[in-house]
Write a structure and sequence with these properties.
- By secondary structure, the protein is mainly alpha-helical.
- It contains six helices and no strands.
- It has helices at residues 4-14, 21-32, 40-47, 50-62, 65-88, 99-173.
- Helix 1 runs antiparallel to helix 2 (21-32) and helix 4 (50-62) crosses helix 6.
Length: 177
């Protein structure tokens, strides 16, 4: 009977590159008898750099309702402080039309947009990694199913051969009519 490793090797030679990274990982796991499934989030976290984690954190904070509400509060406070409170004493450092506030908002947008894009790029890398790990798991399952089919086929052929041998033996020992 063919082993799972031989069935896998035969399957991979017939379909695509048997030396691809995913296929090599699956064959190696089959040969060792090790499980193949891994968590994409854990794998991604292991590969992430400090900048990757920082971009994810900034995107998570900058894209939250808490940030939007707090930022709106800061903007309203800025405008109220410079229009009414400090202007009443002649101390407004950024009077209407809030040129300094506009500069700060533009700077924030100029910094925040690329950081959010970096986080989105990282998310697509996570999605690609998850797809690759899913492919490995599916390939392993397909190979295991093929190995089971091969084993069942072998068992059925052996049983049929045994039954044929018994029938032949019965036919030889049965009296002729």
């Amino acid at each position: 009977m063919a082993s799972v490793f031989h069935i896998a090797t035969r399957l991979l030679k017939g379909h695509g590159d048997p030396h691809g990274e995913e296929e090599a990982h699956v064959l190696s796991a089959i040969e060792r008898g090790a499980p193949i499934s891994r968590d994409a989030a854990d794998e991604s976290d292991l590969r992430s750099t400090f900048g990757d984690r920082l971009a994810d954190r900034v995107a998570a904070i900058g894209g939250s309702w808490g940030f939007i509400i707090a930022f709106t509060g800061v903007l309203l406070g800025w405008m109220l402080l410079n229009s009414d409170v400090l202007a009443h004493f002649g101390l407004a450092f950024d009077p209407y039309p809030y040129i300094f506030l506009n500069l700060m908002l533009s700077t924030l947008a100029a910094i925040q947009a690329p950081v959010i894009m970096m986080s989105q790029n990282r998310q697509s890398e996570k999605d690609r990694l998850a797809a690759r790990l899913d492919y490995e798991t599916n390939l392993r399952a397909e190979i295991d199913i093929l190995a089971l089919h091969a084993k069942l086929d072998t068992d059925v052929i052996e049983r049929l051969a045994a039954l044929e041998a018994k029938i032949d033996a019965l036919a030889r020992t049965a009296p002729s009519a």
